[in-house]
Amino acid sequence: MPKYDKMLTRNTGERPTIQQVLPEMSQELRAKAERVLDEIRGFGTVMVAFSGGVDSTLVAYFAKLALGGSAVAVTADSPSLPPSELDEAKQLAKQIGIRHLVVRTEELEDPNYVDNPPNRCYFCKKELSDRLGILARQLGISVIVDGTNAEDLTGHRPGALALTERGVRRPLAEATMTKNDVRAIAKICGLPNFDKPSMPCLSSRVEYGQKITIERLTKIGKAEALIRSLTGVTELRVRDHGNLARIEVGRNERELFFNPNLLDRIANSLRELGFTYITLDMTGYRSGSMNEPTGSREHA
Asked: Does any domain span residue 231?
């Protein structure tokens, strides 16, 4: 539970300041957090695009702090989202105390998305922001925000363009918060996922040009769940290159696979899922490895 939860519900008619809520914060972090709170408070009502990652969790926490019942968090129930991520988002929203809704997105109905071009994320975020916009109008909410931080705006980010076109605000990025800033503040706030690794959608595991299908996403999700259960790795991607599965794990976790029996079990299990060839990437996990042939640096 967030350690300052009692501050969220006190009935004084006046919202607490960041100094009251986060006294352990450095001056620099406090200034950035205060800027985020002030911006959200100024919106009057707000909808948070809430994935359950640490960035959007911090935004949801601040939204609840700044606006109380005038803030709502919305999570997309998408075929490219592992079920465990949706369950975690629901639990996090409950802990924060923010109203939480789930909206179904249908990006797989868009042939531009299914064809899986290098700007695939544009069509995903277009679908998401359109759905959120409809819901926001129904609820009378004036502003939609997401968890984009300042570092997220570097490199190949077609999804960010779709959100910008639809007026989605980025309070963390506007306050120049980096990923390290977000994690540090989330830890002070007692948010349980402050150190959670990034978890992009399952479609980011599919080689560009390979069609995005329910069957392919299900196969990737099952492969990653199986490997996690057998090894306990925290940083994992199963990259889908057609009939080849390329497994990436954190560089300091590669040694967990140095067991012939384990390797055989993983290989056999992934073949049963439909892969023909299974490889362990010797370099280990690095963000955006699917973009290396294109020269871009999208995080995934």
From this structure: yes
Domain total of the chain: 2
Pair 174, 253 in one domain: no
Let me know if 295 is exposed, middle or buried by CB neighbors in 10 A (0-12, 13-18, 19+): exposed
Residue 12: predicted pLDDT: 43
Looking at the structure, tell me whether residues 22 and 88 fall in a common domain.
yes
d(CA 98, CA 55): 15
- Whether the predicted pLDDT of 37 surpasses 60: yes
**241 touches 275 (CB < 8 A):** no
Shared domain for 125 and 257, answered yes or no, is no
Detail the DSSP E strand segments found in the chain.
46-49, 71-77, 99-104, 143-145, 236-241, 244-249, 277-280
One domain, residues 103 and 227: no
pLDDT at 300 over 60: no
The residues, any chain, with a CB within 8 Å of residue 98's CB and separated by 6 or more, are 48, 60, 61, 63, 64, 71, 72, 73
Give residue 6's pLDDT band: very low, low, confident or very high (50, 70, 90). very low
pLDDT at 289: 59
What's 46's domain CATH number? 3.40.50.620
Q: What's the gap between Cα 227 and its chain centre?
A: 21
Interval 235-278: pLDDT, tens: 999 999 999 999 999 999 999 999 999 999 999 999 999 999 99
Give me the phi and psi of 42, to 5 degrees please: -70, -20
pLDDT surpassing 80 at residue 68: yes
C-alpha 17/C-alpha 134 separation (Å) is 32
| 39: in domain | yes
Give the structural domain span for 244: 202-294
276 CB-side CA count, 13 A = 4
Residue 232 has pLDDT above 60, yes or no: yes
Token digits of residue 251: 């560089």
Note whether residue 195 is domain-resident: no
